[in-house]
Batch of 3 targets.
Target 1
Amino acid sequence: MIGADVAAFIEGPLMILASTRDSAGRAYIARGSGVRFDRATGRFDVLVNASLWPEVVAHAVQGEPVAVTLVRPNDYRAYQVKGWIKDVAAVSEDEQARGRAYVERMLEVMGELGVNRVQLSHTLTDWDLVCISFVPTDLFVQTPGPGAGARLVQS
């Protein structure tokens, strides 16, 4: 589902938006605090702050859909990955450390682009994290331009 080039992209510094929806189809959006793609299993783990984004977490239920948009801030190359939630859980110590490292790295990256810590510190956090795990079913190009929104099929 996810090819090597997109998998490598996912390992870079990315801004993350995660979205779930309620039974009426109303979307809820959260800023992610880290993402990991396991090439062996094809599974995504996205970290989200439960206190800042309670609606997203409340509607993150096993078997329900999730969409995660991944954006590289220096050139705005972007993908959206959709799938079905497999698990939602409090983070492990390793995941917490990954979330902390992600936040520090992204504050550096965004600082290099002129966005300061104060502007991001209230939404880019590493506390009260939960891990939403899913298996992707669809991948879309979201880079602004003529190809935005195109479904991407990879082997």
Target 2
Amino acid sequence: MSAAVLIGVLVAGGVWLVLQRGPLPVVFGFVLLGHAVNVLLLAAGGTDRRGAPFAGRGAPATTADPLPQAFVLTAIVIAFGITVYLLGLVRAERPDEAAPDPGDPDPVDARDGERDDAHRIGGAP
């Protein structure tokens, strides 16, 4: 029951974040949706009503299925890679603050205004 509630909360939060404006909430929404699927896969393995699937301990009928756990481990790695890629895209989309403003006609004069004024007062071109 607690896994179902957790899955519901994660899906609701993930869908809400995916529907927000901006790329960063969408990335966090996909992360929450990925975690919801992972919890769903773990709950499908039956670890709450069966024993841990260790080799040599207990009958196979009384142990949990290890296949969903293997799927979850693979899904965690893939989700981490996709999250890093999406965060890289978000970072690449942001404007660089050190870059000159394209609307500024001469960014060098704007930064060194005093030096340029003194140079003009002296009569040199």
Target 3
Amino acid sequence: MLCGIDLGSRSVKVALMDENKNFKFYKFNTIRFYREHGRTEDGQLVVDLNGLGLDLSSSPVTLVTTGYGRQTVNLKGAKNIPEIKAHVLGASFQTGLKDFTLLDLGGQDSKVALVKGGRLVDFQTNDKCAASTGRYLENMAGVLAIDLEELGRHYQNPVDLTSTCAIFGETELIGKVVEGHPTAHLAAGVNYTIFKRIKPMLVRLLSDHLVFTGGVAYNHAIREILKQELKVPVVVPEHPQFMGAVGCCVSELK
């Protein structure tokens, strides 16, 4: 059995692949994952997989990790692979596409990659600023006093938001609330700012198909904005938040 673990900044995603290439998925809060199921041993992290409640009936288990924590956490007994490689492998496996542009918007970073013939040929990332990530959407939804599902419904008549900073963006949004704009238009404005911030990376690496992954791919409004602005099909694979973990498993098939 293959076990792929994506050590994300907000959540840890786990994918189990059996011999028939069937998947089971699990997600854990990052802090609880380390605090309740991990311990250090000789400078490495040891995770109690059985304590996580994973279905490990088909053993032995091959562990592969990636993600935000890969740079700081060395999981004992696991092979580590680069995050961008894991996401490309997962997206290609789940969609069957070999030529595409990958857009991954996670909890705390954003990635765009150009894939040709199933191979990564170029990529750009933004892990310095949270302004185009799930964390930004969570903060803006909080300002508007709505949940992420409601925020993700609105893309029409967006209020123009110009701040390129997640922190100053909150201040600007509060100002727009005071001006009396409808919540739907404010939510649309928040979603459109995500597109504005990732547009330069997308334009540089755009191809005929866009595969959209990461937790932000659940946002219906951003999917619609991408279709309208880029004029290309937008493919969201099943379980888009688990592409890194899926890619870890797929890396061992080659």
